[in-house]
Design a protein that fits this description.
By secondary structure, the protein is α/β, with parallel strands linked by helices. Helix content is 32%, strand content 14%. It has one domain: Alpha/Beta hydrolase fold, catalytic domain (Rossmann fold, 3-Layer(aba) Sandwich), CATH 3.40.50.
Length: 533
């Protein structure tokens, strides 16, 4: 038996099945950064499922932030990370933050957002220090992004034993969860008590994991922050206004002047990612019949998703930072109302009741928010409740002066620094959060709810009311100046959009996505099976 590695309080060493790692002590937590959970997805491993990392024999020092997966530059705005970050195609790593002397602690696995194009586990906003103080082990993962993570192509499918391609970033996430199952006990975590959570594209990833048979059994609970349920391309069939994923990949290769996958593998990662951004490629999960068997809405309708407790919710100002999703401003209230009637038919009266032609900017912000995030959040908690699982709905409606001054009240992702308690680590364009008692108390309550849910499935907080599940009274928690429990969430909102989306799906020729108002397609008349619950 080899001698135990030397360690001291400042540089803790963990001997895990993957290999020994030397981290760093930060306050009351042991932190281990950029631990590889799979072999580098480079060269011939580009666009292949993640390969297991052989056990290393020496003690690996994991004290420095790792590289982000290769991604294009971000436009100016609240999400811009500011100074350039280190990027590399060799990026399949994860960070672990554990309480000192943790034993069988709940584990939370964070999946970052960024449209499946941007983002990194190494963001300081995702620090696990507050989780460690609450006795929780936090794992934050990198996964392949953009064209490197989600490209489907006929040649790639032929290479696969399952005759499928795409979903490489999702397979990375599944590999990371398997790594957690096999290794986290060595860091003091309970491998049988894992909660996955993410925001935006990270929330979409959580939905993918809920839907993927390959991920079932790897987690016990899930939190979806601003998730969405858009149409996804199917591997070989063009449906719902979407081209097949393989044809999208083949068209991209043509745009890039690459006659084969071998030539695309020969391209530098930076060159490939930048050229792909110019070509307008948008990554999504692929319905391949294996990793993602069917459209998410169909999976949840059939009750085939993972039967686990769930928290889901969204922010009141989601679209204030995403105004590119809005339809053009109507010329007048009457133009708006007439257009709604032309597009929504027998549902127009209800649409105008919920989104009246008064303050048209406010109306369009609300309508697009609900089409994208509101409908999806309520649908998810309803479907989990239908499986007999406790599910909880939230609505983040918190305002503070700097956000209000930028017209970014409760904007998309604005709850994230409250979830992590990291007011001092927001991106460069983020409206600064005042470090006041009230702000800290709200963040403390949200952290309590999230970590207690991870502990035993019942969210509770020292500084907030008991959180009742959504069913049977449509209960929900509003995070405004302080947490407040209410019931009967947005009456009529879900029912309207469920009808709209169901009718879009029924004909097989319309996509269900972010289009609202004057950019929404004309919907069909009543469809018998589209009656809501």
């Amino acid at each position: 038996m080899p001698p135990a590695p030397e360690t001291n309080e400042a540089s803790p060493v963990v001997n895990a099945p993957a290999g020994s790692v030397r981290g760093v002590r930060e306050g009351d937590a042991n932190v281990f950064r950029a631990i590889p959970y799979a072999l580098p997805p480079t060269g011939e491993r580009r666009w292949r499922p993640p390969a297991p990392m052989p056990r290393w024999n020496e003690v690996r020092t994991v004290q420095q932030a790792g590289a982000a997966c290769v991604q294009p530059a971000m436009a100016p705005g609240p999400y811009n990370r500011g100074p350039k970050v280190l990027m590399n195609e060799d990026c399949l790593t994860l960070d672990v933050t554990a309480p000192v002397d943790a034993r069988n602690a709940p584990v939370m696995v964070w999946i970052h957002g960024g449209t499946l194009i941007w983002g990194s586990a190494q963001s300081k906003m995702y620090s696990g220090r507050e989780f460690a103080q609450r006795g929780v082990v936090l794992v934050s993962i990198n996964y392949r992004l953009g064209v490197l993570g989600y490209l489907a192509h006929p040649e790639l499918s032929k290479e696969s034993a399952d005759d499928v391609s795409g979903n490489y970033g999702l397979l990375d996430q599944i590999a990371a969860l398997r790594w957690v199952r096999e290794n986290i006990a060595s860091f003091g975590g309970d491998a049988g008590n894992v909660t996955i959570f993410g925001e935006s594209a990270g929330a979409l990833s959580v939905e993918y994991l809920l839907a993927s048979p390959a991920a079932h059994g790897l987690f016990e609970r899930a939190i979806v922050q601003s998730g969405y349920l858009f149409t996804m391309p199917e591997l070989r069939q063009a449906r719902y206004e979407e081209q097949s994923a393989e044809s999208i990949g083949a068209a991209l290769a043509t745009k890039l002047g690459a006659s084969s996958i071998a030539k695309m593998r020969a391209m530098g990662a930076r060159e490939l990612v930048d050229a792909t951004a110019v070509a307008g490629y948008a990554p999504y999960g692929t319905i391949d019949g294996k990793i993602l068997p069917r459209q998410l809405v169909d999976t949840f309708d059939r009750g085939e998703q993972a039967p686990v407790p769930l928290i889901a919710g969204f922010t009141s100002g989601e679209i204030r930072g995403l105004r590119f999703l809005l339809p053009p401003a109507p010329a007048s209230a009457s133009v708006y109302a007439n257009d709604v009637r032309a597009r929504y038919g027998d549902l127009a009266d209800e649409y105008l009741r919920l989104y009246p032609p008064r303050d048209l900017d406010k109306t369009q912000l609300a309508a697009t928010r609900d089409v994208v995030f509101g409908w999806a959040s309520e649908r998810l908690v309803r479907k989990q409740a239908a499986l007999g699982q406790r599910s909880f709905l939230y609505y983040f409606d918190h305002d503070y002066p700097n956000a209000a001054a930028m017209d970014l009240t409760a904007f998309h992702a604005s709850e994230v620094p409250f979830v992590f308690g990291t007011f001092d680590a927001t991106p460069a364009g983020w409206p600064a959060i005042p470090n006041t008692t009230g702000e800290r108390q709200l963040a403390g309550a949200i952290l309590d709810y999230w970590t207690s849910f991870a502990r035993d499935g019942q969210p509770s907080a020292t500084n907030g009311p008991s959180w009742a599940p959504f069913a049977p009274r449509s209960s929900y928690m509003t995070f405004g100046d302080a947490p407040q429990l209410s019931s009967q969430f947005m009456p009529g909102m879900f029912e309207l959009h469920e009808q709209i989306m169901c009718r879009r799906r029924a004909g097989g020729t319309q996509s269900w996505n972010w289009r609202s108002g004057s950019i929404a397609p004309v919907i069909a008349g009543p469809v018998a099976h589209c009656a809501t619950e």
